[in-house]
Specification:
By secondary structure, the chain is mostly helical. The protein has a domain of 78 residues. The protein contains five helices and no strands.
Length: 125
Amino acid sequence: MLKTLFIIGSGSFFGGIARYLTSKIVQNSIVSAFPFGTMVVNLLGCLLIGLIFGISERTNLINDEWRIFLTVGFCGGFTTFSAFANENVTLLKDGNFLYFALYTGLSVFLGLVAVFIGNAITKLF
């Protein structure tokens, strides 16, 4: 278990650095209030996690440790949106359309509500 946590933590370390640098480079190269940097990171993370899971499902090129390092660790540190998108694709592939709709709708709606509440709480102090 400790080895798995170290693998995830290492991947997350590199993913977080990659997220910061990628977002900064993109955002600094486009003059706009629109968060292009974050959007690019989220889309790249989705593409990357899709590639990793696709390769690991179809070949033996990625063992379990590397898969965990790359998906949970790196992609998780790079963007949790990629995990969210991958879980939704899995729900769709498995035919769980109700769970897909609930997970997507509730995650987006409740996530926005949680951000709003968190922001409102900070204004109380």
